[in-house]
Amino acid sequence: MSSNTKQKAGLPGKQDLEAMSIFRYELRKFLRVSEEVCNAAGITTLQYQLLLHVCGFPERRWATVGELAERLQAAPNGTAALVSRCEAAGLVKRKTDKTDRRQVQVHLTAKGERCLLKLAAEHKTHYGSFAWVFGEKHA
User: Fold this and answer.
1) Where do transmembrane segments lie in this chain (predicted)?
2) What is the CATH number of the domain that holds 31?
3) How confident is the prediction along the chain (139 residues), in pLDDT tens digits per residue?
4) Angle, nearest 10°, between helix axes 14-41 and 110-124?
5) What SS3 state is found at 61?
6) What is the pTM of this model?
7) Which domain holds residue 90?
8) How far is Cα 127 from Cα 115, in angstroms, rounded to an integer?
């Protein structure tokens, strides 16, 4: 199949495959470093991600279990269990929403915030190819 035919069929060309390969390689390197950084701090990468998403939710410093499940791309019941483990570790606390008592907010504790900021600072130094996350141009 010629490269012209591939493009018409929507198949990736060689440049696309090279770009995808580089992206996956950089992503895997980052994830491996993230695992090492989190494990050294005594938490899992999922616990770190949960802390990050609680604090990083747009325009507020808390999130619901459903919102966290979406951000983690996980089932709500699994996310609720993860919140419980983080709560037992003293990293987060649940609060009932004052306007909708059916809604539960997940907030960082002081310990959780300290842990998040320390780990986020370490992660930020490893973003490398992902500098665009911070609005920086990649060299």
Assistant:
1) none
2) 1.10.10.10
3) 555 655 567 899 999 999 999 889 988 988 999 999 999 999 999 999 999 999 998 999 999 999 999 999 999 999 999 999 999 999 999 999 888 888 899 999 999 999 999 999 998 888 766 676 677 654 4
4) 140
5) coil
6) 0.83
7) 16-129
8) 19
Contact partners, residue 69, CB within 8 Å, separation at least 6: 75, 76, 78, 79
**Taking CA 25 as the corner, what is the angle to CA 22 and CA 26, rounded to the nearest 5 degrees?**
85
Q: Tally Cβ neighbours within 10 Å of residue 4.
A: 9
Query: Alpha-carbon distance 102 to 108, whole Å?
Result: 20
Q: Is 40 domain-assigned?
A: yes
- Count of domains forming the chain: 1
Residues in the chain: 139
Alpha helices in 1-139 (DSSP H): 3-8, 14-41, 45-55, 65-72, 76-88, 110-124
Query: What is the C-alpha R_g of the chain?
Result: 19
State which amino acid sits at residue 13.
G
Q: How far is CA 10 from CA 4, 6, 16, 19, 20, in A?
A: 10, 6, 11, 16, 15
Q: Are 80 and 119 in contact (CB under 8 A)?
A: no
Backbone angles phi, psi at 104, to 5 degrees: -115, 130
| In contact, 62 and 95? CB cutoff 8 Å | yes
